[in-house]
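Project standup — Tuesday

K.O.: blocked on the structure for the chain from last sprint. Re-posting the sequence here as requested.
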Amino acid sequence: MQWYTWMEADTVRSFSFYELIVAEKIVLAEELRVLDGDSPLWRPARPLLDAALRLEQNTDTYSWHGWNKQQITTFLDRLSPRCSLVVGVWETVPGEAGIPEREELALGVVCEVVNGEVHSICTFQALTSAGLKPELEPGVDNALEIMRAARRLVAPVAWALFMEKSAWDEWLFAGGDDGGVIDKGELLATFARQGRCVLLGGQPRVYTCEG
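H.V.: unblocked you, prediction finished:
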């Protein structure tokens, strides 16, 4: 049985997602560190970790909303030996009683990737210790500040993705007509061409994907 050690909020816990786990390490390191599991921003991130565990623990034919292990491991294996991945998702909150609508951070996470495996996860709240301001708004200036803080606290940023929640949900949960695997990278590229996301590459140059 493959067990994962999950280090969250200074507490080390060993756990298995199912009673039996496929004894093959694909995406997650055996000791996965969650740096700020007590952050409110961790709550929307936790289901994504659960989904990654399901993918890792099942056979290669298993898929989750169009995702499978192969396309994830192929992507991670192409990254530099130590880097970080950044995801920021904003949601438009309607205004009430004369208060205008506002953009609220719905998901903000940084994953540390070492030799093709995710070794640690933190939220944008943890980046405040690296100088990031607590109040964030969508936009390139804030995106670059997030990337700089992620580099200081975690590792150089390989890719950073920023988008609105409706587009994020559509991309995250999209599957084939039969519910099977689709090319998530190609779908994201389509979103970028439509101006529905901003994708920034950390090195050697910056890519902005807008319509």
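K.O.: great, moving the ticket to review. Residues 42-57 form the longest helix (16 residues). Residues 4-93+101-201 form one domain.
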